[in-house]
């Protein structure tokens, strides 16, 4: 079993437990459920930098990245740096995150927040809304075409943006549909952890222009961004490069200043 299969197997158990404890009717009464969300796709379309900065304490590929920070400090730092949005990992077992991280980030900043999660059930989309997300991630490698359709349409009905992540042409072909806002090309293969910017370059050619293109993972310098822009990318998702430093916000500021 590869790591992605393991994560999904654990996730199904976790989601069933959550559902048993907190009914959907309770999620819908959250004060955040009626909050007007901010569109990340719109922000990226009008931005000159396109940086989406991630909060990630650890990962299966790198183990510990940073366990010493408060998510609210990281969020405020990223906000001051002028990033377009923040991605908050909410998976606990493999990434050391939680829905509380999302809630605390929401309480700290107004910018678009992405719930970075392995979504396999509609329930998690309602949770995303209830905990203050503006955007959800859907990972094509773990979903069927019909799930992508149902999940993205539910997200749209809640006024959440949808970032659909793919790693190869087959995943892209099975996923393209009008209920998506952004297409994310993951430079990291989630099954083998191999990282290559070539993945973004190669797949850019077959992404229709209606979607905002986001390049994800393994971006560690501004040269990578300059290399990817000519391929039509308007969004760049960066985690470890910022999170491995003592002050991710300051690192994002330096990075963005160098880009301008
Ligand atoms: O830390 P990096 O290499 O900059 O990558 C960030 C982000 O792209 C990565 O965390 C990610 C992309 N897709 C995912 C899906 C699940 C968990 C994590 C991810």
Automatic annotation (TrEMBL):
<dbReference type="GO" id="GO:0004640">
    <property type="term" value="F:phosphoribosylanthranilate isomerase activity"/>
</dbReference>
<dbReference type="InterPro" id="IPR013798">
    <property type="entry name" value="Indole-3-glycerol_P_synth_dom"/>
</dbReference>
<keyword id="KW-0822">Tryptophan biosynthesis</keyword>
<dbReference type="Pfam" id="PF00218">
    <property type="entry name" value="IGPS"/>
</dbReference>
<dbReference type="InterPro" id="IPR045186">
    <property type="entry name" value="Indole-3-glycerol_P_synth"/>
</dbReference>
<protein>
    <recommendedName>
        <fullName>Indole-3-glycerol phosphate synthase</fullName>
        <ecNumber>4.1.1.48</ecNumber>
    </recommendedName>
</protein>
<dbReference type="GO" id="GO:0004425">
    <property type="term" value="F:indole-3-glycerol-phosphate synthase activity"/>
</dbReference>
<dbReference type="InterPro" id="IPR013785">
    <property type="entry name" value="Aldolase_TIM"/>
</dbReference>
<keyword id="KW-0028">Amino-acid biosynthesis</keyword>
<keyword id="KW-0456">Lyase</keyword>
<comment type="pathway">
    <text>Amino-acid biosynthesis; L-tryptophan biosynthesis; L-tryptophan from chorismate: step 4/5.</text>
</comment>
<keyword id="KW-0210">Decarboxylase</keyword>
<comment type="similarity">
    <text>Belongs to the TrpC family.</text>
</comment>
<feature type="domain" description="Indole-3-glycerol phosphate synthase">
    <location>
        <begin position="4"/>
        <end position="251"/>
    </location>
</feature>
<dbReference type="InterPro" id="IPR011060">
    <property type="entry name" value="RibuloseP-bd_barrel"/>
</dbReference>
<dbReference type="GO" id="GO:0000162">
    <property type="term" value="P:L-tryptophan biosynthetic process"/>
</dbReference>
<keyword id="KW-0057">Aromatic amino acid biosynthesis</keyword>
């Amino acid at each position: 079993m590869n790591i992605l299969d393991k994560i999904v197997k654990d996730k199904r158990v976790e989601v069933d437990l959550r559902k048993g404890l907190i009914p959907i009717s309770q999620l819908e009464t959250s004060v955040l459920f009626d909050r007007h969300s901010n569109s990340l796709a719109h922000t990226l379309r009008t931005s000159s930098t396109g940086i989406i900065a991630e909060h990630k304490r650890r990962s299966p590929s790198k183990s510990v990245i940073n366990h010493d920070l408060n998510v609210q400090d990281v969020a405020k730092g990223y906000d001051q740096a002028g990033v377009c949005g923040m991605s908050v990992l909410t998976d606990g077992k493999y990434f050391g995150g939680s829905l509380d991280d999302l809630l605390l980030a929401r309480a700290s900043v107004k910018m678009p927040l992405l719930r970075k999660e392995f979504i396999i059930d509609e329930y998690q989309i309602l949770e995303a809304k209830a905990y203050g997300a503006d955007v959800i991630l859907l990972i094509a490698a773990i979903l069927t075409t019909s799930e992508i359709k149902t999940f993205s349409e539910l997200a749209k009905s809640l006024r959440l943006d949808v970032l659909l992540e793919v790693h190869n042409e087959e995943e892209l072909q099975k996923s393209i549909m009008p209920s998506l806002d952004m297409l994310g090309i993951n430079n990291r293969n989630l099954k083998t952890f191999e990282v290559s910017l070539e993945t973004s370059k190669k797949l850019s050619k077959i992404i229709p222009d209606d979607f905002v293109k986001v390049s994800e993972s393994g971006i560690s310098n501004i040269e990578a961004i300059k290399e990817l822009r000519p391929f039509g990318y308007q969004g760049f998702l960066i985690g470890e490069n910022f999170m491995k430093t003592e002050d991710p916000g300051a690192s994002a500021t330096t990075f963005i200043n160098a880009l301008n």
